[in-house]
Automatic annotation (TrEMBL):
InterPro entries cross-referenced by the UniProt entry: MTERF, MTERF_sf
GO BP terms: DNA-templated transcription termination
Protein name: Putative transcription regulator mTERF family
GO molecular function: nucleic acid binding
Keywords: Transcription, Transcription regulation, Transcription termination, Transit peptide
Protein family per UniProt: Belongs to the mTERF family.
Family annotation (PANTHER family): CGI-12 PROTEIN-RELATED, OS03G0360600 PROTEIN
Pfam families: mTERF (PF02536)
Length: 220
C-alpha cells in the first residue's frame, strides 16, 4: 500500500495489534474504506496514518455498524471523519448523545450538534463535557441554545481559554457571543474588549450588538 518503513513503525507503535492481523483481515478494511466509506484512494494513507486502529477493527462488527450509525444521524460525509469509524457505537458514540439529552437537549437538537461538529464524539464525558457544561451553566449563566448553535465550545480549553476570557469579560461588564469569546485570536479579543469598554456600544441584550459582533469578527 506504499507505507514507508518509518510510517509502518509508527502504525505498529500506536496499534501493536496490527502485527497479529492476517493479510486476509486487512484487505477487506481497505476495500471498506474505499468503497463504503468513500475515502479517496489518494487519501487512504493519510486516513490510516491518522487512525492506525482502523486496521485492527472488524469490518463486520465495528466499521460497518459505526458507518451506518453516523449516516443514520445525518453525517453524510463520513469520509471526512474516518477516525470515528473505529469507535464503538454502544460504548462511545451513543453515550455522548445520551449525555446531551440528559442535560436538557432534545434528541433532535443533540443530533444536530453532532452533525454540526462530529468531533464531539471524541471528547470525554467526565473530563470534558461535564466540567465545561457545569462552568457554562453555573459560572457563565448562559442558555442551552448557545451551545446548540456553537457546540465547538467543548473543543476549547476550560483553563486556558474559556475561564480566563469569561472572567475578563465579567471584570469589564461585557458579554460576547460564544464564537467571539472563544474563536478570535488573543489580540483580536483584547482589541474587541477594549473597544467595548471605551464606547457606548450596547452589550448582551442588544440584537444589534450580537449581529454586528458575529458578522464583523467571523469575517476577519
Amino acid at each position: 500500500m506504499g507505507f514507508s518503513t518509518p510510517e509502518f513503525r509508527r502504525l505498529v507503535g500506536m496499534c501493536p495489534e496490527i502485527l497479529a492481523s492476517r493479510v486476509s483481515d486487512i484487505i477487506p478494511i481497505f476495500t471498506f474504506l474505499l468503497r463504503e466509506a468513500r475515502v479517496n484512494g489518494s487519501d487512504l494513507k493519510r486516513v490510516i496514518n491518522r487512525r492506525p486502529r482502523l486496521l485492527a477493527s472488524s469490518v463486520k462488527h465495528r466499521l460497518r455498524p459505526t458507518l451506518y450509525f453516523l449516516q443514520s444521524i445525518g453525517i453524510a460525509d463520513v469520509n471526512k471523519h474516518t477516525s470515528l469509524l473505529s469507535c464503538s457505537v454502544e460504548d462511545k458514540l451513543q453515550p455522548r448523545v445520551d449525555y446531551l439529552e440528559k442535560i436538557g437537549f432534545s434528541r433532535r437538537d443533540a443530533l444536530a450538534m453532532f452533525r454540526r461538529f462530529p468531533q464531539l464524539f471524541c471528547y470525554s464525558i467526565e473530563h470534558n463535557f461535564e466540567p465545561k457544561f457545569n462552568y457554562f451553566v453555573v459560572e457563565m449563566g448562559r442558555e442551552l441554545k448557545e451551545l446548540k448553535e456553537f457546540p465547538h465550545y467543548f473543543s476549547f480549553s476550560l483553563e486556558n481559554r474559556i475561564r480566563p476570557r469569561h472572567q475578563r469579560c465579567v471584570d469589564k461588564g461585557v458579554c460576547f457571543p460564544l464564537p467571539i469569546l472563544l474563536k478570535t485570536s488573543e489580540a483580536r479579543f483584547r482589541d474587541r474588549l477594549e473597544v467595548c469598554c471605551n464606547s457606548s456600544i450596547p452589550l448582551r441584550n442588544s440584537p444589534l450588538w450580537c449581529t454586528n459582533s458575529i458578522s464583523g469578527d467571523l469575517d476577519k
